[in-house]
Amino acid sequence: MIAVRNPAQPPPAPVIDHMAFPIALGFVAGFIDLYGFVAWHGLLAAHVTGNLIFLALSIARGHYDLVMKLLALPMFALSVAASAWVFERWTARGWHPLRPALMVEAAAIALCMLVGLVLPFPDGPDDAAAVIAGSTALFAMALQNTTMRMMLNNLPPTTVMTGNITYVMSETTRRFSGFGAAMPARETAALPRRARLIAATLAAFTAGAIAGGTGALHLGGWALLLPVVALIALLPAERAVMRAAAQGQSTA
After folding, report:
1. What pLDDT sits at residue 106?
2. Cα separation of 144 and 85, whole Å?
3. Between 98-118 and 225-232, two packed helices, what is the crossing angle to 10 degrees?
4. What local confidence, expressed as pLDDT, does residue 110 receive?
5. Helices marked H in 46-127 — which ranges?
6. What is the CA radius of gyration of the chain?
7. Maximum distance among all Cα pairs of the chain, rounded to whole angstroms
């Protein structure tokens, strides 16, 4: 955590647009989503609203192992609220919460790995291993989503790929269609970089999903080392961004 000199009037938050963040976080989200779908019997920890579809499908089929599907959305929402509250408290005290957020998310996924190694492989979505690990994964993804919203909001979302694709296609169409008001020069200049960031996020999410599904099928709990390593690998990039921001403030 980095303290600022005057907590009462903290300087503007640094703009973080390092390519490492959408790549690593996109990989983590894709990995956890498909790993959980395979290992925890259909739980989607990143695309959390998708659990409502599987809840409806289970009811339609007469299957009533519904505890995790019922709890997924409120657990995710409460985790987002708790994360946002803690981030605001840290920021009010003059600390930037990005580094601890990455470390706590890595620790949460490591706990999922430990649960998978200690407890028997779950036979159903409401078995102890699936509930404990799934709940922890929901917290980790809620934390990541809150981090994207509050600290990395100039980067593409790393869990909502449909929104990213919609943005690129709609803005590109608006740019070249010739209809309506002309796109401002600033938006026009930013569009190619935004498209590259979204493409990198989408590719990383896809690679993470492939890795997560393969790991769940062939490696079990040990596969969760990959997203833990991806999050830890972001710490040097975070340090570099914060150092550059601190130097910029000192010369301002």
Report:
1. 98
2. 14
3. 170
4. 98
5. 50-61, 67-92, 98-118
6. 20
7. 65
Q: What is the pLDDT of residue 4?
A: 46
Domain map (residue ranges) of the chain: 20-240
Amino acid at residue number 245:
A
CB-based contact 212:31 (threshold 8 Å): yes
Tokens 């990455």, residue? 102
SS3 content of the chain, % helix, strand, coil (to 5): 75, 0, 25
In the chain, the amino acid numbered 128 is A
Q: Which two tokens stand for residue 3?
A: 């303290």
Q: What is the pLDDT of residue 177?
A: 77
Alpha carbon distance 41, 55 (integer Å): 12
Nearest Cα to 65, choosing from 51, 50, 76, 79?
A: 51
Measured CA distances, 87 to 200, 229, 251 (Å): 27, 23, 27
Q: Compute mean pLDDT per 10 residues along the chain, 252 residues long, and list them.
A: 48 74 97 96 91 89 85 95 96 91 98 95 91 96 95 88 85 76 74 88 96 96 97 93 74 55
The whole-number pLDDT of residue 5 equals 45
pTM of the model: 0.88
Amino acid 71: pLDDT: 92
**Cβ distance 141 to 108 under 8 Å?**
no
Which helix (H) or strand (E) segment holds residue 141: the answer is: helix 128-150
Q: Of 41, 30, 195, 22, give the one whose Cα is nearest residue 128.
A: 41
**Terminal-residue alpha carbon distance, the chain:** 22
